[in-house]
Amino acid sequence: MKILFVCLGNICRSPLAEAIARDYAQKKDYQVEVDSCGTGSWHIGEAPCPDSQKIAKIRGLDISNYKARQVCKDDFKKFDILIGLDSKNITSLKELGYKDALLMGDFGFEGEDVPDPYFFDGFEGFDKVFDMIETCVKNLLDEKVRK
Ligand code: 4NP
């Protein structure tokens, strides 16, 4: 099973989803490959934003060596499940020709979008974003990967 987490820039939310999923899968011995990307191209090659790196570190995860990349059509063949962090990501994937993306918020937050923290005023709010992603990722893996 291969799962791809998709946000806009691949520097704030989806790197957290990727790291949380990898860590949880390892702890649970789930057989799953995970990756993340963005629909936008602005941040290709960049490390995650400082506040995502900070919250990850506080929660015991190191994402400092991650590098942002943009989604590509090969991803639609390579991955079994694509997860959009918000509904705009799902729309963008549809515009690129991928109709089956699932919404992260449907795995524990009644379809809520994971808020885009790029324009948050400082670090406040990253805790909540992390908690929301963590809850959804765990539910997702328990539902889709657990044998
Ligand atoms: P992300 O956050 O989608 O969670 O990585 C964003 C990062 C960059 C931008 C928007 C959202 N941007 O407009 O550059």
Structure description:
The protein has a single domain (2-144), classed as Response regulator (Rossmann fold, 3-Layer(aba) Sandwich), CATH 3.40.50.2300. The protein is 40% helix and 12% strand. The chain has helices at residues 13-28, 50-58, 73-78, 87-95, 126-144, and strands at residues 2-7, 33-38, 81-84, 102-103. It has a 4-stranded parallel β-sheet. The longest helix has 19 residues, at 126-144. The N and C termini lie close together (11 Å). The mean pLDDT is 97. The structure holds 4-nitrophenyl phosphate. 4-nitrophenyl phosphate binds at residues 7-13, 38, 42-43, 116, 118.
Main attributes of the structure:
four-stranded parallel beta sheet; Rossmann fold; globular; alpha/beta; 147 residues; 40% helix; 4 strands; binds 4-nitrophenyl phosphate
CATH architecture: 3-Layer(aba) Sandwich
Strand order of the largest sheet: 2-1-3-4
Low-confidence stretches: none
CATH class: Alpha Beta
What's the CATH superfamily, by name? Response regulator
Fold blueprint:
Elements: E1 2-7, H1 13-28, E2 33-38, H2 50-58, H3 73-78, E3 81-84, H4 87-95, E4 102-103, H5 126-144
Parallel strand pairs: 1-2, 1-3, 3-4
This protein binds 4-nitrophenyl phosphate.
4-nitrophenyl phosphate (4NP) is lined by residues 7-13, 38, 42-43, 116, 118.
Short description:
The chain is an alpha/beta fold. The chain has one domain (2-144): 3-Layer(aba) Sandwich (Rossmann fold), CATH 3.40.50. It has five helices and four strands, in the order βαβααβαβα.
